TrEMBL record:
GO cellular component terms attached to this protein's record: extracellular region
Record PANTHER family: LY6/PLAUR DOMAIN-CONTAINING PROTEIN 8, UROKINASE PLASMINOGEN ACTIVATOR SURFACE RECEPTOR-LIKE
Descriptive protein name: Urokinase plasminogen activator surface receptor-like
Location of the protein in the cell: Secreted
Species of the source: Pelobates cultripes
Lineage: Eukaryota, Metazoa, Chordata, Craniata, Vertebrata
Length: 229
């Protein structure tokens, strides 16, 4: 019989309530839980559960991507056995998970990653070394977000975690990334006109189907909006 895994896509705190058990395809031999953390212009976390193929190249790894004002970190954990990913959430909680070494974490230009107050992250048990990688791209010409411009926007990644943030530079719009319904806000924050016009590189954010922007402070989260993409 086929492997069964829990499937889910949404906020971490809703996983146990809304995850569903489904059969996997024949060539999928592992269950997975993937946590996508977005920081920068947008902030939020999205948990994705499902089936996975061979684990060696895909599982128990962390992938990072930094492009202009958005940084994403995707941590993927896998397990073997039917429905084994029920409580599997890749978060750095030393009390509930067995981790390896702790490393300083930074994804950005050298000046920003050279201080003494960098955040740290726990590696999984199979990772026992910290690494430093330097990559030069055309994007390194646009790393300064600018000064605060007076606009303030709501920022949250689930209905239970609302906050606000001050926008900077050319970020003159408040933005909501909307899911499959108007009240399903995947995440939100500040944005540029370019992002709101759909000219920004599209990040792979699970559940994001369209973008809603507005130009007044704290106008997002279902209030009066101007742009729909």
């Amino acid at each position: 019989s086929s492997l069964e895994c829990y499937h889910f896509k949404g906020p971490v705190d809703q996983a146990l309530e809304k995850q569903e058990a489904k059969e996997c395809e024949i060539n999928h031999h592992h269950c997975k839980s993937s946590l996508l953390t977005i920081t920068g212009m947008l902030k939020g976390k999205v948990l994705v559960k499902g089936c996975a193929k061979k684990s060696d190249e895909y599982c128990n790894k962390t992938h990072t991507l930094s492009e202009k004002d958005i940084q994403t970190i995707e941590t993927i954990m896998c397990c073997e056995g039917d429905l084994c990913n029920k409580d599997l959430v890749p978060v750095s909680d030393a009390e509930s998970q067995k981790w390896g070494v702790e490393c300083l974490a930074c994804n950005g230009p050298p000046p920003a990653c050279g201080g003494d107050d960098l955040p740290s992250m726990q590696c999984d048990s199979a990772e026992n070394q910290c690494i430093q990688v330097s990559i030069t791209t055309a994007l390194n010409q646009a790393t300064d977000p600018g000064a605060e411009n007076g606009l303030e926007c709501y920022s949250r990644s689930s209905p239970d975690s609302a906050s606000s943030m001050k926008c900077r530079g050319e970020m003159t719009q408040c933005v909501d990334l909307i899911g499959d319904s108007n009240d399903n806000v995947v995440m939100s924050g500040c944005a540029t006109e370019t992002f709101c016009q759909g000219l920004y590189p599209r990040f792979k954010i699970p559940g994001w189907s369209r973008t809603v922007c507005c130009a007044k402070s704290l106008c997002n989260h279902g209030n009066n909006t101007a742009h729909h993409i």
